[in-house]
Amino acid sequence: MILLKEVIRRKASPLPTLSNKLFCFTLVNKEHKVNYIFTIVNIILGRKKMKSKTKVVRVMLVSIFLGVMMVNVQAQGVTISVADFIGGAAEVEVFEYLEQQFQERNPGVKVERRYTPFAEYTDVLTTSIVGGSPPDVAMLYDFNAGKFIGMGAILALDDLIKRDYPNVAQWEADWAPGMLTRENGKIHMLCIRGGPRCVFYNVDRFRSVGLYYPARTWEEFVQDCKKLTRDINGDGRIDEYGIGLAATKQGEGMWDWFSVLTAWGGKLLNEDRTAAFNQSEAIESMQFYVDLLLKHKVVPPGVLQTPKHKEVEEFIAGLTSMTWYGPWFISTLKTRKPKFKWAVGLMPTHEGRMGSSVGPIWWGICKASKHHEEAWEFIKFMTGPEASRYMAKKLEYTPARLSVLNDPELQKMEHFRVFVEQAKLPGAYIIPMIPETPQLIDILVEAYQTAMSGRKTAKEALDKAAAKWNRLIAR
């Protein structure tokens, strides 16, 4: 700053207050800053035809002005608010570490977390957006992403992606199956982590009936479940079951059925959003699922009153021999230390197709944010290979990028490496992300419960649900 004032004093003594204009630059719209600098330099040097030395002085002055201006901007800084629902101590520690890393690499940007418990998150985010005080960056998940995108609240990222990744095809190819999503043909979010379902199984129980690994096909899976469903003490009551299922009104068990649905080649909706869940593939997959309980009787009774957290407790207690769950269950089992050896296997296939429902979380930029560039740099960093690799190693978050999934270090992580392998395979299923997603799930849960209770067949229940859904979207 001293050097700048000295240059101005020597070259422009008639304008002793000119240096004060420097402090106005940060108040000027950024598109015009350089023009103002050139104008001031022209005043200093005069409008006569410049000699080569004068041109050099002009360039030096511009460089000095730009440098001081950037220091001034960084000193002021920009704060971006980031809304999330990350509440676990280990997760908070990891996310705060990564946010600190981002801030150190971007000294002009400060990250301010807006934490909300998961149960209240969607309502709080909705209120902030509607009320005109949205965060700059928002964490989204499959249940609420469609709502906020449908509201027009989330910025499409395509132009930013094309600008920063000239080889867009190569960039897109690095995302694992299903992890790069488009809504109305646009990319609105970048994935933080996947969350495929895999098979957790009781190794000791398997060996006791002559089994060593989970079945490769769903047909073999049924036979294995029958072997694992036993009356141990001969009192006429089943003591051990093959698999646990959840079928409460909360709908958590639906994600297990979605894995079966995908393996059968089914889907929930057509391109025009009309029901596809009453087509033959979907009906057959649900009937297969229902038969595990009602026909084969390899599932503990009471599934209509069994939420997912209770169903996995049945596995830990040894009542069931298998459960389908995501990588987050690994840390639970390590902490709880069940009285048996356990392991993880890939999901079964049907006619060569594999299905695994995935519950990813994403970062999105709020369209009303005044800091799109800083928010974009933040989500690029937080979903990039370095951050993804760190989260995988510290939290066993399944990476969304193939370049990270192929990291040899992840292949050495017991149990987690199975999820890494599952994430690379085709068949990842994410529910449709549309504004009506909550209503869709409610309708499907009603059909699911009706079929699981035996009051209707899978076809009858899904046909009724399809009619209800099609009426809803036709309004």
UniProtKB/TrEMBL annotation:
The chain crosses the membrane at residues 56-75. Pfam families: SBP_bac_1. One of its GO terms (biological process) is maltose transport. InterPro entries: SBP (IPR006059). The keyword Oxidoreductase does not apply. GO terms for cellular component: ATP-binding cassette (ABC) transporter complex, substrate-binding subunit-containing. Belongs to the bacterial solute-binding protein 1 family. This is Sugar ABC transporter substrate-binding protein. It comes from Aerophobetes bacterium. The lineage of its organism: Bacteria, Candidatus Aerophobota.
